[in-house]
Amino acid sequence: MGGTPVVRLARLVDAGHAEVWVKLEGANPTGSYKDRMALSIIEAAAADGRLRPGQAVVEASVGSTGSALAFVCAATGHPLRVVSSGAAAVEKIRTMRAFGAEVELVPSPYGMTPDLVPAMTRRAAEIAAETGAYLVDQFHNTDMLPGYHRLGAELAAQLPGPAGLDAFCSYVGTAGCFLGATRALRAAYPGLRRVVVEPAESAVLSGGPAGSHQIEGGGIGARPPLLAPADHDEVLAVAEADAFAMARRAAREEGLLCGPSTGANLVAAIRLAARLGPGHRVATVQVDSGLKYLAGPLFAASP
Ligand SMILES: Cc1ncc(COP(=O)(O)O)c(C=O)c1O
Asked: Which cofactor is recorded for it (predicted)?
């Protein structure tokens, strides 16, 4: 887990713009940076006795966290129950079940809607109260931050030469990745601009109304509880259609297979690169592998 590669975009960025570097988190065991948080959370809870050997674990997850927890729980001997939803890619639900997790689905015919995460979270808390399972509670669990801190520290060590890093951007759900990575990166680059990415259709951090969208994994319709206004310097809203189009272009033009949230990250990073200009650097993350989205609408539309 971790030690993932970093590549520089070669064709999606104009020659007169800043460099864009991408940390390829699809290279983790379940194909997502969520593996880092699952291990970090389970290890921390086991270390101080909040999680006993063999105790069941429960969590609400649209998909990637559930897949990563299912992997880590299988490896560490904890039964897992996941409350997920119809908004999750079918590959993610099957991954959870393949690792032996019990999955319960909350209906969500309209994708990521503002009431979805609260409904899933309530159900997971109910299960924890009824069964005594350890509730991960990812929207409030700071045990994940060391896992993402390592991601940021790796990235700082991997960027070549003394050029530095001017900006980092990423799409937020829990904001765990954004917080852990930017804290590590700020230690290496004190002037770093920290840019949160959100869906234009639910741009609440930009002051807009909550709405439904298809960029799964974030844009929850409210400020993530762990993310304080002082934790970011800017918010960029990316339209769902632009995120999807960029994910498709990244596959064809860069050989970078990714999902919608990574598409949003790339749109934001390329916008920042245009603004910053030559001699500057922007970094972002490939959240997960596009292999998780092959059965859904993202690549089905490709001729
Ligand atoms: C596909 C995808 N992208 C982005 C995110 C956002 O990551 P974070 O929760 O660290 O903010 C998630 C989180 O679930 C996700 O599943």
From this structure: pyridoxal 5'-phosphate
Structural domains present in the chain: 6-29+147-300 (3.40.50.1100), 34-139 (3.40.50.1100)
The alpha-carbon radius of gyration of the chain (Å, integer) is: 18
- Give per-residue pLDDT as tens, 156-186: 999 988 889 999 999 999 999 999 999 999 9
- Residue of 34, 149, 257 to mutate, ligand 1, most atoms within 8 A of C-beta: 34
Pocket of ligand 1 (CB under 6 A): 62, 64-65, 171-178, 216-218, 259, 261, 287-288
Give the distance, in angstroms, between the CA of residue 280 and the centroid of all CA atoms in the same chain: 25
**Residues 110-148 pLDDT 10s:** 777 888 889 999 999 999 999 999 999 999 999 999 999
- Alpha carbon of 275 to ligand 1 centroid (Å): 26
Sign of the dihedral defined by the CA atoms of residues 192, 137, 60, 32, in that order: positive
Site to substitute for ligand 1 among 287, 289, 298, most atoms within 8 A of C-beta: 287
User: pTM for the full model?
Assistant: 0.95
